Amino acid sequence: MTIENVLHENRRIAPPADFAASVKWTKEAYLREYRRSLEEPDAFWSDVANELTWFTPWTRVLDWQAPHARWFVDATTNVAYNALDRHLAAKGDLTAIVWEGEDGVVTRTTYRELHAQVCRFANALSSIGVSKGDRVTIYMPLVTEAIVAMLACARLGAIHSVVFGGFSSSALSERIKDAGAKVLVTADGGLRRGSAVSLKASADTALQNASSIEKVVVLKRLGTDVAMQEGRDVWWHDLVEGQPSEHQAVPVDSEHPLFILYTSGSTGKPKGVLHTTGGYMVGAYLTMGAVFEPKDSDLFWCTADIGWVTGHSYVAYGPLLNGASIFLYEGAPNHPDMGRFWQMIERHNVTILYTAPTAIRSFMRAGDEFPNAYDLSSLRLLGTVGEPINPEAWMWYYKTIGKERCPVVDTWWQTETGTIMLTTLPGAFDAKPGSAGLPMFGVAPDIVTADGQPLGPDEGGFLILQRPWPSMLRTVYGDDERYKKTYWGELPGMYFAGDGARRDADGYVTVVGRIDDVLNVSGHRLGTMEVESALVAHPAVAEAAVVGRPDEVKGEAIVAFVTLQAGATCTDDDLRRHVAREIGAIARPDEIRFAEALPKTRSGKIMRRLLRQIASGQETSGDTSTLEDASVLDKLRRSPGVTGN
Ligand code: PRX
């Protein structure tokens, strides 16, 4: 395998002529509507929203009391109604979900069947006391029923909080407590790399100190033996037994919360990002439609887990709101080998693939023989999300997977933005490998200095968004101060994304990465704080500092500097296992360096900049005059690095 060295980044890839000729969103259509979305936002958003069903109309499109927005004020609607009922007459028999288990089992669910399943589960949840405003935590493998559970909550006006099935029991417990969830929906387990992941056992541990949960609904995915607690736990199949397959979707206010999704910040515990109904629905509907333009003949595969925002907006809500057919795969990309994705694309005729740069890089590394062994001619469009994509990986994706026939869209957005904010529409503009590109409708990005001054072309600075958009987060659940401070406090009047970026003379934005203490490991956001807290919770650890080091496949690798309690001993493997238990395998440090002391300022602040330089093998540079004990740096540089994973 060769890796192309792209020395000049001004390469442009034009959309194939037949693709460009087939799209609704041409360059002219985009330019006209983008302009209208900024100049006449009320008219623009009303037109989009009117493509969906509302039970009561809005009195105003936007009420903006910075930094709090209310969109489609006073309107009522229901997202599940729009994702399902709205399509029944025209698309009842169209496939909504093709699901493949890691063991190769395949199920197909039509829109009519999905509607019936969601109605039955909504009735079932209602029978155990779930109603509007209640929080329901979902901790499941990637199975059709996970989407059923989300939509059933939406139908009832209950607020779902999906927790990634790879998170540990303590991470789950913390999220249940923060949300004050009443019901937990889980499964006996799921399959990952050929083995069973025991979700129910992990949930049981989590529930030992999460007392808000009254009922646990357990899906039988594997048929393994699990302990069921009398009075608290109930099997999914028993609960839906006899429930009617009709259910009247509950009309909720446009600003009624739809879901909470926890994400990492630079300080403290994970933030419960809160999204509401009307604006999120309109954003997910519009962006899915504009970027991917799914047709009935398409099979759309977004490879994210529903535990992440990408899974919310482009596995579940966006595609279903557009009446698209989606593909869902439960397991690991390398099971039984690195050809699994390509084999499934051939077998199911997947037409649109939306995945992460980290996955692309690991496929690229595995070798072209895997994709080359399969017929990928069903593909017509490719997308990436989650982290910056390096031009070599972009070109590999474009050539080896897309055979230079399929446009590649690089989409920048965040848990907080809810939906895609930057991308070049695939039939409208040339792609520039490595650059996310142009703003979506209603999005006004800018690149500014630390004090908010706009920067010129190609100057690097902070990425900000200048006005509210429908799918923006509304607050941090239970902590509005943190919302104001984190996102709107840094640069008054501007939404601060926490990313560094630059913009070229054509207006294409290239996002280069986080500027706060947040790592992006395989496209997942992890706060250095969370990993540090997990480390110091180990009895042998006195202090820990965690930094990222550039990694060819994962984007960033986690390096932890640890000092031990006097007289204590433990190995790096002990600590790595400990972090995996506390947070989940994704947070397991790649390298642990034991040190006698950490570099600190005289006021006791750990100098991460220096640790980052040491972790990536660079010379330490910059100002070290505030360092309390300069000899610490030498010792750290000499301390043996232990690499693992
Ligand atoms: O740093 C940016 C990076 O991922 C962060 C958002 O992470 P999360 O909330 O977990 O959502 C991921 C999926 C939307 C951003 O602040 N990021 C996401 N997409 C891109 C990206 N960086 C560069 N290019 C992208 N296309």
UniProtKB/TrEMBL annotation:
<dbReference type="InterPro" id="IPR020845">
    <property type="entry name" value="AMP-binding_CS"/>
</dbReference>
<feature type="binding site">
    <location>
        <begin position="192"/>
        <end position="195"/>
    </location>
    <ligand>
        <name>CoA</name>
    </ligand>
</feature>
<dbReference type="GO" id="GO:0019427">
    <property type="term" value="P:acetyl-CoA biosynthetic process from acetate"/>
</dbReference>
<dbReference type="InterPro" id="IPR011904">
    <property type="entry name" value="Ac_CoA_lig"/>
</dbReference>
<feature type="binding site">
    <location>
        <position position="541"/>
    </location>
    <ligand>
        <name>Mg(2+)</name>
    </ligand>
</feature>
<feature type="binding site">
    <location>
        <position position="499"/>
    </location>
    <ligand>
        <name>ATP</name>
    </ligand>
</feature>
<dbReference type="InterPro" id="IPR042099">
    <property type="entry name" value="ANL_N_sf"/>
</dbReference>
<dbReference type="GO" id="GO:0005524">
    <property type="term" value="F:ATP binding"/>
</dbReference>
<keyword id="KW-0479">Metal-binding</keyword>
<dbReference type="GO" id="GO:0016208">
    <property type="term" value="F:AMP binding"/>
</dbReference>
<feature type="binding site">
    <location>
        <position position="538"/>
    </location>
    <ligand>
        <name>Mg(2+)</name>
    </ligand>
</feature>
<feature type="binding site">
    <location>
        <position position="522"/>
    </location>
    <ligand>
        <name>CoA</name>
    </ligand>
</feature>
<keyword id="KW-0067">ATP-binding</keyword>
<dbReference type="GO" id="GO:0046872">
    <property type="term" value="F:metal ion binding"/>
</dbReference>
<feature type="modified residue" description="N6-acetyllysine">
    <location>
        <position position="605"/>
    </location>
</feature>
<feature type="binding site">
    <location>
        <begin position="410"/>
        <end position="415"/>
    </location>
    <ligand>
        <name>ATP</name>
    </ligand>
</feature>
<feature type="binding site">
    <location>
        <position position="525"/>
    </location>
    <ligand>
        <name>ATP</name>
    </ligand>
</feature>
<dbReference type="InterPro" id="IPR000873">
    <property type="entry name" value="AMP-dep_synth/lig_dom"/>
</dbReference>
<comment type="function">
    <text>Catalyzes the conversion of acetate into acetyl-CoA (AcCoA), an essential intermediate at the junction of anabolic and catabolic pathways. AcsA undergoes a two-step reaction. In the first half reaction, AcsA combines acetate with ATP to form acetyl-adenylate (AcAMP) intermediate. In the second half reaction, it can then transfer the acetyl group from AcAMP to the sulfhydryl group of CoA, forming the product AcCoA.</text>
</comment>
<keyword id="KW-0007">Acetylation</keyword>
<keyword id="KW-0460">Magnesium</keyword>
<dbReference type="Pfam" id="PF16177">
    <property type="entry name" value="ACAS_N"/>
</dbReference>
<feature type="binding site">
    <location>
        <position position="310"/>
    </location>
    <ligand>
        <name>CoA</name>
    </ligand>
</feature>
<dbReference type="GO" id="GO:0003987">
    <property type="term" value="F:acetate-CoA ligase activity"/>
</dbReference>
<feature type="compositionally biased region" description="Polar residues">
    <location>
        <begin position="617"/>
        <end position="628"/>
    </location>
</feature>
<feature type="binding site">
    <location>
        <position position="536"/>
    </location>
    <ligand>
        <name>Mg(2+)</name>
    </ligand>
</feature>
<keyword id="KW-0436">Ligase</keyword>
<comment type="similarity">
    <text>Belongs to the ATP-dependent AMP-binding enzyme family.</text>
</comment>
<feature type="domain" description="AMP-dependent synthetase/ligase">
    <location>
        <begin position="85"/>
        <end position="469"/>
    </location>
</feature>
<dbReference type="Pfam" id="PF13193">
    <property type="entry name" value="AMP-binding_C"/>
</dbReference>
<dbReference type="InterPro" id="IPR032387">
    <property type="entry name" value="ACAS_N"/>
</dbReference>
<protein>
    <recommendedName>
        <fullName>Acetyl-coenzyme A synthetase</fullName>
        <ecNumber>6.2.1.1</ecNumber>
    </recommendedName>
</protein>
<feature type="binding site">
    <location>
        <position position="334"/>
    </location>
    <ligand>
        <name>CoA</name>
    </ligand>
</feature>
<feature type="domain" description="AMP-binding enzyme C-terminal">
    <location>
        <begin position="530"/>
        <end position="605"/>
    </location>
</feature>
<keyword id="KW-0547">Nucleotide-binding</keyword>
<dbReference type="InterPro" id="IPR045851">
    <property type="entry name" value="AMP-bd_C_sf"/>
</dbReference>
<dbReference type="InterPro" id="IPR025110">
    <property type="entry name" value="AMP-bd_C"/>
</dbReference>
<dbReference type="GO" id="GO:0005829">
    <property type="term" value="C:cytosol"/>
</dbReference>
<feature type="binding site">
    <location>
        <position position="514"/>
    </location>
    <ligand>
        <name>ATP</name>
    </ligand>
</feature>
<dbReference type="Pfam" id="PF00501">
    <property type="entry name" value="AMP-binding"/>
</dbReference>
<feature type="domain" description="Acetyl-coenzyme A synthetase N-terminal">
    <location>
        <begin position="30"/>
        <end position="83"/>
    </location>
</feature>
<feature type="binding site">
    <location>
        <begin position="386"/>
        <end position="388"/>
    </location>
    <ligand>
        <name>ATP</name>
    </ligand>
</feature>
